[in-house]
Predict the 3D structure of the following.
Amino acid sequence: MKTGCSKLVRLLCVLWLIIWAVAPRASAQPRPSLGLQFSAGQPTLSLTGGVGTVYSIQYATDLSPTHQWIDRTLLQAQGGSNLWTDPSAPTLGRRFYRAVSVAAPADTNLAFIQPGTFTMGSPDSEAERESSEGPQTEVTISRGFWMGKYEVTQGEYSSLMATNPSYFTTQDAHGNPISPDLSRPVERVSWGDAVAYCAALTTREQNAGRLPDGYLYRLPTEAEWEYACRAGTAGPRYGSLDEIAWHRGNSEESLHEVGGLRPNPWGLHDMLGNVWEWCWDIYDPEVYGTYRVLRGGGWFDEHWSCRASVRRRSHPTFRLDDVGFRIARSAVSWSLVPPERPQRATVSRAPRSSA
């Protein structure tokens, strides 16, 4: 018994020293360090580094000359020790970890979303609840990512794609003239349009040297979207409805410029209201085929549709004047295959018909 315990202690000490020693030094930043302990048989890492700096947590199974470091997550140093548990670590075998600083995005309209666990969906007792919002499920977002602070604007979309498909350019919902404002969200974009925008943005930023190798822009997964929307809060919304969302009761049945209302605690604006936002996920392939998920509610919707747990679905070619999107940015190695996404119920009302 004493021998086994002593071996375990020696193993932990060796791993901790290897982790700390291989973490590279970032220019003009304090050297990051990683501590290691085991919790329920899984390695839990504690990161200390430059406050606000994002680090790629990587692992290798050996330190031979041909070894390969594999990205496992992104983690932001936020003061003190920042803990992260690797759910993918095998029970047997060994891993060596290191922390590598990642350059901050040139786009300051991106907010970093720290990994974490939250309760997805709404309780049976929530007012106006729909069956598609349950059952409530504990979901772990094990990989950090960046998310747009705002919905993609007409200006951003037209600058990159050389077109502006939006309805709200020179007239409101009733055909009355309005002043052009490219800070309004782009709308009348399909899921395919949104994916194409993300691909074009990835190519542009790579060519300009502003996107590191191995990273891309994409749509958020549904679990990422709700996690970021809630931002650590509980309940149907992250604030008073009229203070955070443009909805049918306060929008005057019109689209509004992004960022005009109070953000959520993580600095994200218009997560509820203004336009519905496409997510990457297929809604339910067995029942609805290729239909994709929409989240957040829009300017035309009643208050009950502007809640963190509300879900809609539509065909990936669907376009309407209250449907837009926002971007996410992450490492390619784990993008678009979200292991955290739970199975959800299949009953839901469709978005407002274009008819």
In short: The two ends are 74 Å apart (CA to CA). DSSP finds six helices and 16 strands in the chain. The CA atoms of residues 230 and 238 lie 6 Å apart.
